[in-house]
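Tokens in:
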């Protein structure tokens, strides 16, 4: 109470001015129709501006919910697209089952932490075993491949980023279909290397590099990046530099990819003789 009295005494002149100004405006508005109209118009303008500002603030605060909704809808559409593509290419008997006909399912997730400036980078997602996310599942965005799940808890998953020296996947040049191994050399967060492409293969700057589908983690055709340069290394192979489509420093929302026939796929791989089991892509 004492502070309030001190405040009033300190600014008594300004407070008195505001009171007198308010009385003057009120008297003026009562005695003049024109002034009433002007004051009402000004108040309406201020009120409209306040409503507009409040609407923008509300819309901004709702963006998170809108993004989550869009991610769920996007994952739903991906699941439907994968199913219809699979039954289109499957025998007639497989068309009967919507479960057996589906090869991959997609779970939307948000990146909650991660690194891009180390030689072995990882990031953490806000989904885990409760959302049916487990190790050895691929992770991608609409723009391309971003990593592989390596560890999970009930509500979170750790992902080995493509920006990791241990990360390797099978990839192909879209135009020619030739395969290679995609890896990261630790130099730039925007570039990777496509190795083991034979020397006789025609390579052009601007060619698109994508997943080959030769694994249980990524469907074929997911974009990875664009060829920016190439040279002959190790005698008979190209070493191709690929500009990544994904900007990992802006990575926020992803999809975790589940292969529906993982158990069957692994069983067949394990049945191969040791010298033929070529699990060389760490996928």
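Residues out:
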């Amino acid at each position: 109470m004492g502070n309030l009295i001190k405040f009033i005494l300190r600014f008594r002149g300004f407070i008195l001015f505001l009171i007198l100004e308010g009385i003057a405006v009120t008297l003026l508005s009562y005695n003049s129709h024109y002034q009433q109209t002007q004051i009402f118009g000004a108040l309406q303008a201020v009120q409209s501006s306040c409503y507009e500002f409040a609407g923008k603030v509300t819309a901004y605060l709702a963006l998170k919910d809108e993004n989550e909704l869009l991610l769920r809808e996007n994952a739903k559409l991906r699941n439907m697209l994968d199913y219809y593509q699979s039954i289109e290419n499957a025998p007639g008997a497989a068309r009967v089952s919507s479960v057996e006909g589906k090869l991959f399912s997609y779970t939307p997730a948000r990146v909650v932490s991660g690194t891009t400036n180390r030689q072995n980078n990882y990031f953490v997602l806000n989904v885990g075993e409760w959302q049916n996310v487990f190790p050895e599942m691929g992770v991608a965005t609409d723009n391309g491949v971003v990593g592989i799940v390596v560890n999970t808890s009930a509500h979170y998953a750790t992902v080995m980023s493509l920006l990791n020296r241990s990360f390797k996947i099978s990839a192909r040049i879209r135009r020619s279909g030739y395969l290679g191994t995609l890896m990261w050399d630790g130099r730039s967060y925007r570039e990777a290397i496509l190795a083991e492409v034979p020397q006789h293969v025609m390579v052009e700057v601007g060619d698109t590099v994508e997943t080959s589908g030769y694994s249980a983690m990524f469907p074929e055709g997911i974009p990875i990046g664009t060829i920016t340069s190439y040279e002959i290394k190790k005698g008979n192979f190209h070493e191709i530099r690929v500009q990544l489509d994904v900007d990992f420093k802006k990575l926020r929302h992803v999809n975790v990819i589940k292969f529906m026939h993982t158990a069957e796929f692994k069983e067949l791989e394990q049945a191969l003789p040791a010298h033929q089991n070529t699990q060389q892509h760490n996928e």
